[in-house]
Structure formats: C-alpha cells, structure tokens
Automatic annotation (TrEMBL):
Superkingdom of the source species: Bacteria
Domain Putative sugar diacid recognition, chain residue ranges per copy: 2-135
Boundaries of every PucR C-terminal helix-turn-helix domain copy: 327-368
InterPro entries linked to this entry: CdaR-like_regulators, CdaR_GGDEF, Diacid_rec, PucR_C-HTH_dom, PucR_C-HTH_sf
Annotated ranges, domain CdaR GGDEF-like: 145-267
Family, per entry: Belongs to the CdaR family.
Protein's name according to its UniProt entry: Sugar diacid utilization regulator
Length: 394
C-alpha cells in the first residue's frame, strides 16, 4: 500500500531534481502526493485507467479538457515486487517532452518505495526483537513458554542453543549515551565473535544486553567463551579509547525459557550491586555473589544498621559525601591502587588517601583488608548506591 508520506516524498525529491510537477496517486486514483498542494485529495481519472490497464497513459492538452482532474502529461503505474500495481506517478507537461523524463520518474519512485519498505522491515524486525527480549526477561510471562520459544524460532533464533546474559555498560561525559551504545552494538555485530545466534539490543539507553550463545555450560567454559568474546569486541576496538569506563557483567547458564530471565537477573544484579576488587572490566556471576547476599538482607538490617552508618558519613562529609563514596567504590574496583583511582577521578593521589582515612575515622574501623569490616563497608556502600539510584529516579 502506498501511503501519503511516501507519496509526498516521491513528489518532493523527484521535482527538486527534474523541475517538473509530479503527482502520485494511490490505488483508487486519488492524488496523495503532489507539487501542487491544491490538487491533493482530488480524483485523477487517467490514473485510474493506468491502474486498471497496468500501462502508461499519455494525455494531450485537448484530451485533458475532457477528463476529470487531469492535466496534460504522462501517467505510469507503480508496480511492487510482486507485480501488483500500488499506485501511479504522473509528470505534468507535453507528453512528447516529458516521455523520457517519465521513465526516470517511474524508476525513482519505485526505488524510493523499495528503500522505504526495506527500512520498514528493518524497524519492524528491530521492534519485534526488542519486544521479544523484553518478554524473555520479564518477571511475569504474558504468554506461554512454548509461544515464546516459537516466537524466537520464527525470528531465526535456534532456541535450543544455550545462552548466557551479558550486560555491557559504558560511562561517558555525556549523561545520555544511547547513541554511543547503538554505535558500539553495531560495531560489535561486525565482529566474527558476534554470532548470528547471539540475541542483542540496547536497553533503555544505558546498557547493551547480549544473550551470548555458548557451546559448553560449565562456569569455567562460560568464562573462556565470554571473556574471549568481550576482549575481541570491546578491548580491541579503537573507538573505546573515548570511553572512560566499560564494564561487562555476565549471568550464569540456566535451562529453558525462564533461564533467560534468571541469567539476566544475575547479570543485572552484579551490575547494580557488585563491588569489584580486581580492576577488570568483566565480572561473572559465579565469582561475584555479594549482590545476592545484599538482596537477601531484611529491612531491619537496612534501617537499623546500614542507614545509621550512611547518616553518620553524610554528617561527617556533608556535600563531599558523594565524592568520598565514589572514591571508595573506585578503590574497590581497582584493588586499592591509589594512583589509578586518582587518574580516574582527576584528583591528586593524596586526596584519595585522605578521603579513605577520613572515612575510616568516621566509621571507626579499617576499610582495607579481607576482614569482616570490609564486608560491612561493602554493604554500606551498596545500600548508599541503591538509595542514590532511587533518588535519581524520583
């Protein structure tokens, strides 16, 4: 079906190149695109003849006087790939003068329509895939697992293949990095490591989700496959030099349709709550279970233990609380490498040391080491981050 938007696009683009008035009529002979706005929505009698006979119809000035809504010119049927006439494109003027131009106009019109149909198919597939992925990771299934399985099969995914969830996040100076993520995903798809069976999308403009196809499901095999994939598509990409921070979070393998949700939940949990200590850019669920401990704490622990500590820190640091907590988060992620954290935060190394010591004095215990105090502060930091995220969403 030929819509008005495309019809007017044909008229505008072709007219700007040829200088002749162009009319585009739908399958009912109604002008839906024209260089003469006053002719829009009027009936074109010769266009209907071109549609019914599926042939080019020329109209002289004398003939035009006898017809309804027609001016001298040439009218050519627009035919789709299936051979169906979907409309007519007309060029106003003396038929002898516009005959050759008409052939170019017809070719241009059909090319524009074909390009638009390709774009429509692309966006339709992308929207269908995004809805499919949303359904996969949803807590509550609105359709049966078999329907989801069949849906994936229709989209070309072998739903029998094992997959694990991989969340990729990047941090830039700009607050909205959706374009950067889309560019990165497109770059990832050009890699030989990114398979056709890998299901991927940009999630709400803040992360990329890939359900990575794997051959073996043991934890160490998942590490081997996904680490090689991540290094190939991320660490070796030159455009990532512009990215200040890039992290990958990988969920475990679970069977069945519900397994997609379980794997995604693990990857999401690590992304939101895990505090790395190795400085790596990739984290696996089976190696970082702190977030599960955090999620299983009851409300009284949050309100009676962790919140008082946070309030004490806020009283001690005031407006500098966020800087202090961010410094500690970066220290954890970089294995307490003061020089590296100082570079990341654009501060002097002594500033990093000062913030840590002041925080220890405020809390009354050491934060460095592998003792129970370290676990307590990890919980405090995790709860602080959760509260900050909730405030930003309000």
């Amino acid at each position: 079906m030929l819509d008005r938007k495309i019809a007017q696009k044909i008229a505008d683009e072709v007219m700007s190149s040829l200088g002749h008035n162009i009319n585009v009529m739908n399958e009912n002979g109604i002008i839906i695109g024209s260089g003469s706005p006053q002719r829009l929505e009027t009936y074109h009698e010769t266009a209907m003849k071109a549609i019914n006979q599926c042939e080019t119809c020329e109209v002289t000035e004398a003939e035009a006087l006898k017809l309804q809504g027609v001016k001298p010119g040439i009218n050519m049927p627009i035919v789709d790939k299936e051979g169906k006439v979907i409309g007519v494109v007309g060029v106003t003027g003396n038929p002898a003068e516009v005959r050759n131009i008409g052939k170019l106009v017809k070719m241009a019109a059909e090319l524009i329509i074909e390009q638009q149909e390709s774009m429509n198919r692309f966006y339709s597939h992308r929207n269908d895939k995004e809805l499919f992925i949303t359904t996969l990771i949803n807590d509550r299934l609105t359709i049966s697992e078999k329907e989801i399985f069949d849906w994936g099969q229709r989209m070309g995914y072998d739903m029998e293949k094992p997959r694990v969830a991989l969340i990729v996040t990047i941090k830039q100076q700009e607050k909205n990095n959706k374009t950067a993520l889309e560019d990165l995903l497109n770059e990832m798809k050009t890699s030989s490591s990114h398979l056709k069976q890998d299901i991927s999308t940009v999630m709400s403009g803040d992360s990329i989700l890939v359900f990575k196809t794997i051959k073996k499901t043991e934890p160490w095999e998942i590490e081997k496959i996904v680490r090689a994939y991540a290094i190939d598509i991320l660490a070796k990409r030159p455009e990532l030099k512009k990215i200040r921070d890039c992290k990958c979070y990988v969920g475990g393998y679970y069977t069945g349709i519900k397994g997609y949700r379980n794997s995604y939940s693990e990857a999401y949990g690590i992304a939101k709550h895990a505090i790395g200590s190795t400085g790596e850019f990739i984290y696996f669920a089976h190696s970082h279970y702190f977030w599960k401990l955090f999620n299983h704490l009851d409300d009284e622990v949050f309100s009676n233990v962790l919140l008082p500590y946070i309030q004490k820190i806020e009283k001690c640091f005031g407006k500098g609380t966020e800087e202090a907590m961010l410094t500690m988060k970066r220290l954890y992620e970089n294995g307490f490498n003061y020089e590296k954290v100082a570079v990341e935060l654009y501060v002097h190394k002594n500033t990093v040391i000062f913030r840590r010591k002041k925080l220890e004095e405020c809390l009354g215990f050491s934060i460095k080491g592998n003792g129970e105090d370290n676990l307590l502060f990890s919980l405090i930091l995790g709860y602080y981050r959760m509260l900050k995220n909730e405030q930003e969403l309000e």
